[in-house]
Amino acid sequence: MEMRYAKEATENNGILMIHIKPLDENYNLTTNNKKSSVVDYPQTDSSADLVNDIHPVSFIKLFRFTSSSEKCLLILALAAAISGGAVTVGNMLLFANMTDNMINFGSQVTNNVSVIESDEFLDTLQRFAIGNAIIGGLVFILGYTSNFLFNYTAQKQLTSNLSIMELEAYGKASSIAEEVLSSMRTVVAFSGQDKEVNGYESNLVLAKKITIKKGFYIALTSGVNWFFIYSSLGLSFWYGIGLVLDGMDKPESNQVYTAGTMIMVIC
């Protein structure tokens, strides 16, 4: 039970005497029988309790407080990202066409054909160079626009719980170090060096574990992604080359699978 006290001052032969008495609900401070005006303030929850009461929300709900202008920027960024991906397909078509022309030109040289369509081959290379430059510029502009707008509208949004936990652990460790450095004499006077060091190390160990866990998930995701990419490339080369070889004996007008088709599918 919390005890409350009141002070009463009396003067005896020129000596000021102060009496400290415990207060109860019926104790009066003045001679007018007025009750004490002691105010009990309700205890508030600590910041840690408030943090624990916060419930996670979905990714979509993170943007429910965005303004109309921010929503427009997000839509524009999404459109720029989709356009950048669509433009890349045009580059693949140009590259596939150039591959077919290079193979045809090489076969003519190998077979010592008297008439070599060199002008057509050079025109194909020129179209590829110009088209590749234009598409590269568009991809750069659209990609930069989408990334800039996404970062601009969501720069204050933290979507990773592990990142938040990591920052909190490092924050606690830095607060301990700051407190110890600011009151070094007090810590040394009470021989609290080991205790403060252990507290600092415990928070660093927690941050280390969280960082390792986050890195593991990132590496696992990247590994699975590249596994499917290389598996798709290997399957395409293994099966695609067989289709191209099977169609080489057919007339050129009846050839469905060419080297350019395989390159376009792989890319």
TrEMBL record:
Family annotation (PROSITE patterns): ABC_TM1F (PS50929)
Cellular location(s): Membrane
GO CC term, one of those recorded: mitochondrial inner membrane
Membrane topology term: Multi-pass membrane protein
Record domain ABC transmembrane type-1: where: 166-267
GO biological process: oligopeptide export from mitochondrion
Superkingdom assignment: Eukaryota
Gene Ontology MF terms: ABC-type oligopeptide transporter activity; ATP binding
Keywords: Membrane, Transmembrane, Transmembrane helix
Membrane-crossing segments per the record: 73-96, 128-150, 216-241
InterPro entries reported in the protein's UniProt record: ABC1_TM_dom, ABC1_TM_sf, Type_1_exporter
Name recorded for this polypeptide: ABC transmembrane type-1 domain-containing protein
